[in-house]
Amino acid sequence: MLVEVKVPMLAESVAEATLMTWHKQVGDEVKRGDSLIDIETDKVTLEVAAPNNGVLTEIIRNDGDTVTSDEVIARIDTEASAGSGVAAAEPAVPQQQELPVLNEEHPAEAPEPKMSPAARNMVENFNLDARQIKDANNDGRLTKQDVVTHLADNPATASPAAPVATPSAPVAESLSAVPSQSPAPATEVQPTPASAPPPAPAVATTDDDRRIERVRMTRLRQKIAERLLGAQHENALLTTFNEVNMQPVMDLRDRYKEEFEQTHGVRLGFMSFFTKAAVEALKKFPVINASVDGTDILYHNYYDIGIAVSSPRGLVVPIVRDAETLTLAQVESTIREMGEKAQASTLTMDDLTGGTFTITNGGVFGSLLSTPIINPPQSAILGMHKIQQRPIAENGEVVIRPMMYLALSYDHRIIDGREAVQFLVSIKDLLEDPARLLLQI
């Protein structure tokens, strides 16, 4: 019996998806639950599993094809076995198959290797047989250096299509690595007898492998580009900056990190402090947690904090839901779980949907200062940066402290500068006196 393999039902906001790489091929035996192919949407990657045991007899849609919900992409024969069906119907290859003779008498029977544009020009200019040239990388592709080496080792094989002029300075420089076969200086050159082999040819200098590789954006990268451009075009973006002395948080973390990890089974990081500080600041300035809907402002009475994470597929923003109800340990556990899922490309649509405010940490990559772009339909985003020892004035004295620049990008349509600045100052105050987080003041 033939069973159809279909695209899973996509979310309402996802119109289509892209097939990635098939893990099974026609004729392969599959078991129920085996991964057949991954499907990439603009938000998540979905796995399509085999619905029944059997043999994959037909692949209808290929790698890179665009598909929609419930579309048939393959068929499985539940009554076939591996080696039968389609695979058996293919003509058998004779065991004793005559192969082309690759020698000087039959050069045309050998396939011509692939060549870079520079290598092809040289082969044509000097009437070389590409099949006789060895590629140094053994990948079946000739480069300019392969041709230069062949000419140096076999000067008699070259027969220029046109008279070769005396090498110019750049040409002579390109041949400087080919000793012993180089022609004598120009002042000593004698007429070459017709029977004598021609001198080593002059090689025009061209940059090797100046290729342009066209790679289609992944669906996720297309969506990221679309959303970022939309954020800049549709919002009145502005960024305000401040700096925070991280010494109090670092001292608190160093004092309790071992006991914290033993008690809660998770490490105490900085992100949980910033998440809780953001929640407390959002409570004081509700418009930062709001969004624009046409001519209305939507105020959210909950705090779903997006944490920007770099994954192999690009930037994703999983959501820490109801962050105001979570402890520092629960925030750390949630962030770690989301990070692991992002690296494994197993985030679900629910993990990425929603969010009222976002935090991004460019400091993990060494960024000292940046202006993050908001994640629509949110109205603000907090940017963390690298912690760096800097001299500051403290109690009338210059001291060295671990400082971090903070950036708040916001939609100036609904958020005034006063509110944005005070919101950032509130986060600064909470982090420089972490007891405020416990007291919620």
Round the mean pLDDT to the nearest integer and report it.
Answer: 80
- Characterize the largest beta sheet: strand count, sense, and whether it forms a barrel: 7 strands, mixed
Give the count of helical stretches: 11
Any idea what the radius of gyration is?
A: 33 Å
Count all strands and give the number: 21
Shape verdict: globular
Strand content: 15-25%
Oligomer: single chain
Derived structural class: alpha+beta
The CA-CA distance between the termini, in Å, is 68 Å
- Fraction of residues in helix: 25-40%
Uncertain stretches: 85-108, 162-199
Secondary structure layout:
Blueprint lengths: L1 E5 L10 E6 L6 E2 L4 E6 L4 E5 L4 E6 L6 E2 L4 E6 L8 H4 L24 E2 L1 H9 L15 E2 L1 H10 L15 H6 L44 H16 L2 E9 L1 H18 L6 H14 L6 E3 L2 E3 L6 E3 L1 E3 L2 E3 L2 E2 L7 H16 L5 H4 L4 E5 L18 E5 L3 E7 L2 E15 L5 H16 L2 H5 L2
Parallel strand pairs: 9-10, 14-18, 18-19
Antiparallel strand pairs: 1-8, 2-4, 2-7, 3-6, 4-5, 6-8, 11-21, 12-13, 14-17, 15-16, 19-21, 20-21
Helix pairs in contact: 2-3, 7-8, 7-10
Would you give an account of this structure?
The protein is an alpha+beta fold and 441 residues long. Helix content is 27%, strand content 23%. It has 11 helices and 21 strands. Strands 11, 14, 17, 18, 19, 20 and 21 form a 7-stranded mixed sheet that branches. β20 and β21 form a beta hairpin. α7 packs across α10. The longest helix is centred in the middle third of the chain and has 18 residues. The radius of gyration is 33 Å and the shape is globular. About 14% of the residues have low confidence.
